[in-house]
Automatic annotation (TrEMBL):
Residues 249-315, 756-783 are annotated as: Disordered. F-actin regulator involved in anterograde Golgi to endosome transport: upon ubiquitination via 'Lys-33'-linked ubiquitin chains by the BCR(KLHL20) E3 ubiquitin ligase complex, interacts with EPS15 and localizes to the trans-Golgi network, where it promotes actin polymerization, thereby facilitating post-Golgi trafficking. May play a role in the maintenance of the Golgi apparatus morphology. The keyword Membrane does not apply. Keywords: Actin-binding, Cytoplasm, Repeat, WD repeat. Residues 766-775 have a biased composition (Acidic residues). It holds the Pfam family WD40. It is found in: Cytoplasm. This is Coronin. GO terms for molecular function: actin binding. Residues 321-385 form the DUF1899 domain. Residues 260-303 have a biased composition (Low complexity). GO terms for cellular component: cytoplasm. Its main location: cytoplasm.
Length: 783
């Protein structure tokens, strides 16, 4: 994708053989396009190169009326496949072209032969770059020779661009990125950078603005003079040794030079169409004519995002470029007190940092108690209310509890890791604990040091993975009670583990500052390894975006909590994005919802919960009036879709367990919100057995719809006619005479007082007959 001040061009999906231009026109090239570039001195001039060994120059103003059938100019370098094309920054009509193993310099006025052929390359030329003054040309190729020193013109700009991924994560892959020229920026709104992101279905403008108290004014300190659009010399002058520079111009709207007339080659009608057509890349102040309305252009239906109209304020423009996630207004609400479990006594508040604090499933909750012998209390979710003050039946683990987890496929089986390097598996009877359990069903031993975390396999039944201070990660088969794999490679304590959504890979984050990915069935060593968070206070890891990325919560070198996003296919490249959160001693525990791409973050002894939407990086905080010691979530079937609940969890405080519902505000709650609820995985049922997975089999969870039978999807709801909220402006602007105003005032007073001819209310009452009256004398006689 490439952009000029008024146009944007990009490859379509037709095998890359067609260039799409914003004005809904195509350039048929018939061969695979390898590169393109706009002229810095003519917004309508586009150069392309393709595998047919030709460079073509296209005049894009002609596309406003019809498709272009032939280029304005064709160059034939004749040295194999062409990979790159780049205009000269100071001279007109000068091109640099990258071929298979050479770079060439062409003068478009001399089409017979290039001005120079640079053949000092040992392999395919991968990039070309002119020095800012146009005196030098740098190139790089596949052969790993000495790297040429790169000249970056604006370090502050590079700093801004490196943070783009932290603010613009989309749910579709990025196909290309283009930087919009400075002359197209909305300087009156303090816009300093605009980038175009090309995805599978749309072009997304990403705007960066510097916050200023005084808006709609030009700030000289933000906008130094920039390079103009008039070439300093011709290609022939440059080739003879000229070194003139392009005149710099001010970005102030009142000081900009007037736009040049259209090229003489165009007809008057074409020139008028080209100069007055609106573009998504031009700012409201630089547009020659008002933008087309959405109904008159095919931009919206084509997946483009149009530019704001001149009447839009800076705030509206920021909202247009800002987060658009349907979950950005999600709210967390504690449910009614009748659903709480209260009067919990003796809660263990000193569990290790790798432990979530407590664990839940659809039927019951397990909570560690600060009682000798590593006791765990189990509460039935179907029996909320106040617990008795007397002693409760518990699970006696014999040693201190390090971590524990419910089997996702068996609501009665609880695995507990202890300080004695053993894993005990307990079976809770139907209906809950009636008496204290002292004998586990299975005891698994293999670690030589204390265990600090355990995690069940998300797809295969009976598989459990554990990490220990002996620096190993071990895979256990609960059916046999024995370990089946020992994973090595860690140099320090393992902070967190997470299985990939397909159950094939295991990710770990370690205190040695590394993030690793294992394929346990193929190797005991990591298949990938990369740098992790710099802090050593703790970390967690989860798989996000269908297993394409890893989200790690940890600490930086200044002990500030943050989120780090890694590509699962290239851990060695480091984090592709990082977002600082806040400063707190507790590790952020992330909970990822694959149906909504929402991450809910909390920490132990925390008074707030962060909600983070991945594809738009939106943070929302929900504060509590009590300290939070743990948060765990229930299956999606526990959500009340009639109240638009997207997640339901249980919150552990010092003495209570309280259900929390996360809701999306909606108006038409009588309809099923099918844009919010996608089919969800039945992760509480195994997809295959542990033995089948160990033998190499793979499978996925089946999915179900959450739509009740008696609800209609909101996408099928009847469309209501728009209701006018206000009277037409003609009603307010109509001039009235004094007599008309007097009549209106009198009519209003009469309407308020009522009509004199109307009967009184008491006239409608029923009276009493004469014979029913009793005289005072009669009453005295009766007495």
């Amino acid at each position: 994708i490439k952009a000029s001040s008024k146009l944007v061009a990009f490859n379509t999906e037709q095998a890359g053989k067609t260039i799409k231009v914003w004005q809904n026109s195509n350039i048929p090239l018939y061969y695979l396009v390898t590169d393109m570039d706009f002229s810095p001195f003519d917004d309508s001039l586009l150069a392309t190169c393709s595998v047919d060994e030709t460079v073509k120059l296209w005049r894009l103003c002609d596309l406003a009326q019809e498709q272009s059938s032939s280029p304005e100019l064709t160059l034939r370098p004749g040295q194999g496949r062409l990979e790159l094309v780049l205009f000269h920054p100071t001279s007109s009509g000068l091109l640099a072209v990258g071929t298979t193993k050479s770079a060439q310099i062409w003068d478009t006025n001399c089409q017979e032969a290039p001005l120079a052929v640079l053949e000092q390359h040992g392999d395919q030329v991968q990039s070309l770059g002119w020095k800012l003054d146009g005196s030098l040309l740098a190139s790089s190729c596949k052969v790993r020779t000495a790297q040429p020193e790169q000249d970056y013109p604006d370090p502050s700009l590079l700093l801004i661009l490196t943070s783009i991924v932290s603010h613009c994560l989309t749910d579709t892959s990025t196909k290309g990125v283009a930087l919009v020229p400075k002359l197209a920026l909305d300087v009156m709104s303090c816009e300093v950078v605009r980038v175009l992101q090309l995805t599978d279905s749309c072009i997304l403008p990403i705007s960066y603005q510097v916050p200023r108290k005084v808006c709609h004014e030009f700030h000289d300190d933000l906008y130094p003079d920039t390079v103009g659009t008039t070439p300093a010399m011709s290609a022939e002058e440059w080739w003879k040794g000229g070194n003139k520079q392009v005149e710099r111009i001010s970005l102030h709207p009142d000081k900009r030079p007037k736009q040049k007339a259209a090229p003489a080659k165009q007809t008057p009608d074409q020139a008028r169409d080209c100069s007055t057509s609106s573009s998504p890349l031009s700012t409201p102040s630089s547009s020659a004519a008002p933008s087309r309305s959405p109904s008159s252009t095919s931009g919206l239906s084509s997946g483009f995002v149009p530019s704001p109209s001149p009447s839009q304020t800076a705030k509206a423009f920021q909202n247009l470029m800002g987060p658009t996630s349907k979950f950005r207004h999600i709210q967390g609400t504690v449910m009614h007190r009748d659903t709480h479990i209260t009067n919990i006594r003796g809660l263990n508040l000193t569990t290790p940092g790798e432990c979530d604090g407590f664990c839940v499933n659809r039927q019951r909750v397990a909570v560690p108690l600060a009682i000798s012998g590593g006791q765990i209390a189990v509460f039935e979710r179907s029996q909320p209310g106040k617990l008795p003050d007397t002693a409760l039946p518990t699970i006696q683990n014999s040693v201190n509890v390090a971590d524990f987890a419910w089997d996702p496929f068996d609501t009665h089986r609880l695995a507990v890791a202890g300080d004695d390097a053993k894993i005990r598996v307990w079976q809770v009877p139907e209906g809950g604990l009636k008496e204290t359990l002292t004998e586990p069903k299975i005891i698994m031993q293999g670690h030589t040091e204390k265990i600090y975390s355990i995690t069940f396999h998300p797809l295969a039944s009976g598989l459990l993975v554990s990490s220990s201070y002996d620096l190993t990660v071990r895979l256990w088969n609960l059916e046999t009670g024995k370990q089946v794999k020992v994973l090595d490679g860690h140099q320090d304590q393992v902070f967190g583990m997470a299985w990939s959504p397909d159950g094939k890979l295991l990710a770990t984050v370690c205190k040695d500052g590394k993030v690793r990915i294992y394929d346990p069935r193929k190797s005991t060593s990591p298949v990938q390894e990369g740098p992790g968070p710099e802090g050593h206070r703790g970390a967690r890891v989860v798989w996000v975006c269908d297993g394409k990325y890893l989200l790690v919560s940890g600490f930086d070198s200044r002990s500030e909590r943050g989120l780090y996003l890694y590509s699962a296919s290239s851990l060695s490249s480091g984090a592709v994005s990082s977002v600082p959160v806040n400063v707190s001693p507790s590790t952020l525990i992330p909970y990822y919802d694959p149906d909504t791409s929402v991450v809910i973050l909390t920490g132990k002894v925390s008074t707030q919960t962060e909600i983070f939407t991945l594809h738009k990086c939106t943070f929302m905080r929900s504060c509590h009036n009590r300290s939070l010691y743990g948060l765990a979530f229930l299956p999606k079937t526990e959500c009340n879709v009639r109240d638009v609940e997207v997640a339901v969890g249980l919150m552990l405080t010092k003495t209570t367990i309280e259900p929390v519902a996360f809701k999306v505000p909606r108006v038409k709650k009588e309809f099923f919100q099918d844009d919010v609820y996608s089919d969800t995985a039945v992760w509480w049922e195994p997809a295959l057995t542990g033995s089948a997975w160990l033998s190499g089999s793979n499978d996925q969870h089946k999915k179900i719809s959450l739509k009740p039978k008696d609800m209609t999807p909101v996408s099928e709801a009847p469309k209501e006619a728009p209701v006018r909220k206000y009277l037409p402006s003609s009603v307010y602007l109509e001039e009235k005479t004094d007599e008309q105003k007097k009549d209106e005032l009198l009519n209003a007073m009469v309407a308020k007082l009522g009509n004199m001819d109307d009967p009184l209310p008491q006239e409608s009452y029923e009276g009493v007959d004469e014979d029913e009256w009793v005289s005072e004398c009669d009453q005295n006689m009766n007495v």
